Batch of 4 targets.
Target 1
Amino acid sequence: MSHHADQNDQTGQAQQAFTVEAGTDGYPTIVHVSGALDYDTSPVLGAVIDRLWEELDGDHLLLNLERTTFCDSVGLSRLIAAFTGSQQRGVTLLLVAPQPFMRHVLDLTGLSRILMIRDSLAQALDEARERSTNDQGHVPSL
């Protein structure tokens, strides 16, 4: 299943800012973030993630940042809010393939020490699937 959240640019043309691939059968949910993550688009990303929380209880959420071209302080705040929400719900949040500028910002702010960052989508998918398999095979002791 796929969802799209669009943002209108200054010309009135709709541009695709966020695409969601909802996870099924051990496949994690991925939010593809394209373009700027800023004052204008951060609320859209927040709304997309808010709609996903119910489906993700104890699962994985991957924020694919490889097509993110800009991130301001509001965008960083949105990433922190996503991290906080994931912690509250037992969801594993992975930031995927941030561009060098984004990685630099995450390092400068200290967020790279808190947020789980993976270099590629393939790496994040493998990790999420491995954790899902391990969690399903794990029987909690009483």
Note: The CA atoms of residues 58 and 91 lie 5 Å apart.
Target 2
Amino acid sequence: MKIVSNIKSIGMALALGFFMFACGQETQNETNSAVDETQAEVSEANTEANAELNEAGAEANQEYDEFTGWVRTNTAKAETVTADEYREMRAEYNRKEAEFEAESSTWDEETRREWEEVKADWNEFENSVQKRLGKIDDIDVDVDVKRDNN
């Protein structure tokens, strides 16, 4: 009887150990699957975020390139620009300059250097136009007033 009892105890211990091992492997496999799924989702989210950042960066670079081209084209007109054209150009330049100045802290060193060159070219243009046309104010007053009590 003692032998049968010992065999039953050993059998129960082995069965319990086997079930524990089986449950542990299944749980581990499920956990690994969940981790893999989460990592895949995070990776996908990172890929999407990077794509959006790259797209935004490319868009910003395109705007910057277009603006620098605009500045270079218009600064070449220093000898022929009229006062009205100059006022319009200056207003556009000031608006765009404010936008780019706000973004310039995120630029690399080369882009900042190029931006300083663009601003220097514009300043040269302004000095040349003002030298040729005189001091041009932003306000253009065209008033036609009749006065009865002169």
Note: The radius of gyration is 37 Å.
Target 3
Amino acid sequence: MRSGLRVLLGLTATVTLGAGIVVPAFTASASASSTYAAETWHWGPTASTDYKGWATGKIRSTSSGLRVSGDLYDAGGARTCSWVKIKWLTDHGRYRTATFKNCSQSTPRAFSVNTGYMLSAEAKVCRGTSTRITGRCSGWEGVWSQGG
């Protein structure tokens, strides 16, 4: 469907009336080269093994690669936090990680990381203190892979 729209963006249709008058039926003003259509993939929820922390999110294409974003929820007790760890494989064959925490116990925390061009991404949710992950982690869940 998107490739069909790209073809139509550069075309102008005309309708010929009975008296030989040609009237433009529609005119597409945007060209395919000036328009950038971002794609979005959703993932989650991924939960810690005690189900007191979970994360959901999306991966969105940008002009400089991909962006992984989402919300981290914390339903744990006092002095505990939920952590989400994102791991991705770059197009250069290197693994990178980003870690985010939420200690609010009531409000989801938004997170976002620009990954650039990547081959795959995984996420896991853990429990911990305000300074480090202590355990009760989910397994690595594949959230995005190039080619499906």
Note: The longest helix spans residues 2-9.
Target 4
Amino acid sequence: MVVFVWFVFIVAPFCLLLHELGHSLLARTAGAERVEVFLGIGPSLKIQVNPSFRIHIALWYFLGAMVSYDKREGFSLGDRMAISLGGPLFSLVGAVICWGIYLYAPYPIVSLMMVFNGWLFIINLIPFSIKGKQSDGYLVMKDAACLIKKKRY
């Protein structure tokens, strides 16, 4: 029971935040003028990091996460692919770092973080779309298909 509580209220939200920060960092690198990271649902506490970057931590912070960003002239296909891959790559880096820590400090919370970050990495690269929600892998596949079509004509 204690492991479940740690997982739901600490490990999963932290790993989801790390994943979304990966998307936001790549969006900023691609020139996004506004980036907002949302953790959870419900009324939220807004943390203004700088004028164009904000983090929203909701009352039910353990119920999902997402990032929102925009740029006046839009993003190129390559930028969109990089932004979509940013989250899974941050999850992979998180898993590798946790694995390294676990080798020297084998605490259960570190192993949970390692496994969940690895799971986020793998699941988000699988291309799927459910009720309008598209995985990072689906977005990359869709943009790659558009890029290939453009080059053929």
Note: The longest strand covers residues 53-70.
